[in-house]
Amino acid sequence: MGKKALITGITGQDGAYLSELLLAKGYEVHGIKRRSSLINTERIDHLYQDPHVENYRFRLHYGDLSDSSNITRIIQDVQPDEIYNLGAMSHVKVSFEEPEYTANVDGIGTLRILEAIRLLGLGQKTRFYQASTSELYGLVQEIPQKETTPFYPRSPYAVAKLYAYWITVNYREAYNMYACNGILFNHESPLRGETFVTRKITRGVARIALGLQDRLYVGNLDAKRDWGHAKDYVEAMWRMLQQDKAEDFVVATGETTSVRDFVKMAFEEVGIIVSFRGKGEEEVAVVEEVLKECAVEIGHTVLAIDPRYYRPTEVDLLIGDASKAKEKLGWAPRYTLSELVKEMMEADMELFRKDLYLKEGGHKINSYNE
Ligand code: NDP
Ligand code: GDR
Catalytic site residues? Predict the structure, then answer.
């Protein structure tokens, strides 16, 4: 019999990649999905299995991290060997608009799972992974950031995740549970949510190159992030739960890049060379050269600032030191940033070529790009 895993946030970016990984390893995978008025399983639809077939190993349960009786019942039914708590209101900017909800789901939601494991008497059976984040480091205290770097959260999201981090440590120490935090730095992919900056950029650039959009509006171009590929990062999550002893680990590439440079790289992928002009809110990106056939002209402004995307408090610089993960988990990233950008751009070009085809056929296409 393979192991059983329960994943919260299975419909998200990491949930999809982790499900693929665990199914390939022979796990029975259970996931919690929220009821939604629209179908929200697009990222995992390829994993769907007919529940009537034999050896049915991928199961979804309706649930929500704000509902403790629901969480407890699912854990009781599934009796998982491993729980990966990936569910969260994961958008930093949105957390300033929904701080209380974010605290409930991202902070107390973690407690709800830990308490369920404890009260159901699964403390010595079920291993627990908490999706902690580099956002905990917030205001720069040390460069690069590692497991011992002090935390200084800068958003309601990060403060909620700080609670989740410490309650995980506390349950490990108080009840001798196998519970650990993966302090993951930003990780992206073609499955990344459309409103996070990398995906917003690759979508916007693809649409501009195809003539579906005139200009992209973003916020702070100076922010620097340590961006890796989500596929590499879910492998680290799994490895964290296979050790003799539960510990917390930083997972990062060790390289940092500004949002501005990410923009440049994305445009370069489609043969558009841009230069940045002006400062602050007046900064724009203008086309300098066009190396491949596409729908823009030299001198055109393809990107401008919209201060609406600024955050009340920003995290300026993240760069992680994953030496501990390398040493104890044997983990290292396989993707470079260039490979990541290339994969994301190819996927978004493919996606929007379909829109172009529809538009040329006289159909209305969606232009939403927040
Ligand atoms: P996504 O935003 O892509 O996915 C979040 C998941 O959580 C979705 O499945 C979402 O469901 C679910 N969810 C949201 N609210 C609730 C709720 N109230 N109850 C149950 N489930 C809920 O995030 P990622 O996959 O990128 O990230 C996974 C986790 O890792 C998150 O906890 C995130 O905070 C954390 N993290 C992410 C990093 C990254 O760079 N990606 C870095 C470090 C940490 P629905 O589809 O219905 O919205
Ligand atoms: P982040 O990711 O806040 O690091 O959280 P995001 O991609 O949203 O922002 C990264 C940086 O880009 C700047 N930025 C913009 N961001 C967005 N979303 N939209 C814009 O238009 C824009 N312009 C500039 C931001 O100000 C920021 O500095 C992600 C999430 O996945 C969290 O759940 C996770 O914990 C952390 O990564 C690690």
Answer: 133, 135, 157
